Amino acid sequence: MRYLSTRGHADRKQFCEILLEGLAPDGGLYLPEHYPVVDAATLSAWREVYLKQGYADLAFEILSLYIDDIPADDLRALCRKTYTAAVFGSPEIVPLKKLQDAATDASQAGFYLQALSNGPTLAFKDMAMQLLGNLFEYELARRNEELNILGATSGDTGSAAEYAMRGKKGVRVFMTSPNGRMSPFQQAQMFSLLDENIHNIAIDGVFDDCQDIVKAVSNDLAFKRQYKIGTVNSINWARLLAQVVYYFAGYFQLPESATGGKASFTVPSGNFGNVCAGHVARMMGLPVHQLVVATNENDVLDEFFRTGVYRVRVGADTHETSSPSMDISKASNFERFVFDLLGRDAAQTADLFGRQLSDQGFFDLSAHPAFQQAATRYGFVSGKSTHADRLQTIRETYQRFGTVVDTHTADGVKVAREHLTPGVPMLVLETALPIKFAATIEEALGRPPERPPGFDGIEALPKRVKLMPADVALIKAYVAEHAH
Question: Which residues are catalytic?
């Protein structure tokens, strides 16, 4: 398997090259030259692998289709080292919980939460980041090299990356985050890590400023090579690839008689990486009816799927919400889907995400024949949730099912209910545990959420963080000073 850039860079690279590289040299995102397509017999065999052998072996089956420069025995061992019940809390790794009562709708084949947040940092980012940490350590050891990871987080990527990379040989993490825009729990998870290879940088700005810094540094090829800069953001294909696995695992947990052949997934979405993994799974042959994109008040993605217009917002127009991990107005992974939507036309993709966004801040595909295919061919629909919706959904979900969901998952539940199809199961991807957003849970329910064992007093721990302006040159200087 070789990988190409969404913007047409001529080189075709192997997996381990792009694992350490992140962005392509032309600023594009890497994708495989083709998506391996599996038939019904393979799906049935994979179901047996997951149900009898476990998530790690399913991950190996899927990842091995994309990774041919790591020996099979080594890749299987990496998957088994990563996906254990001890780390993720259950043998299923991503168990389903059915939310259904007599008042739901009898024609619905099932409404489920897929638990993705039982890893070390209580967020779905652990599902990919734990594997990424092991892949980095493995490949750097093979090359006898080191890597300086520069990342951006709106809340959960940072802690998941840092917990996955802390103590890893040959890896340093420089994680930028928007100052004051994460929940106290999220900040404590990151800033309380005092490991020598972890550097937290709070940026005076919004998440998109952090993301722009990471992309600017990644596009400075001389600096990137000199200081061996890599990324753990979802612009890294390896992270998105790891997320593909849990779509198959969720589907395989459904009763075969209940699926009618297909299932739908609703995904709380900010940067488009999580739902883009669902797109890849669907392209591989997973029987997906719809991929439902759920946004908060920062609705750039909902606007596109409704109108065909992709319009990024400036920092002043990016709302600070109670589902802060989705307070994003530039969905960096969206380029991958648009590349596929346009028939993999790299020149057109480069023009849209390069010239047009730079010159006018938006592009308009409403009149493009491909736009209609977003829903009809690729199954994408969307919806939006507000703070009031969030509170109501949290209350209703608790009152009806005894289940407390976090604010982002609440956005997903709200939008999922608007896109139910009779006879088709709906799976809502859980994104975090409620404790990460305790203030809003308390506002909704009148009491704080349960705190998982091991997290008592985390907010009071000593913290180490560097406050800096949104200045690429200053960030480069900081990385250069500490990248040794």
Answer: 125
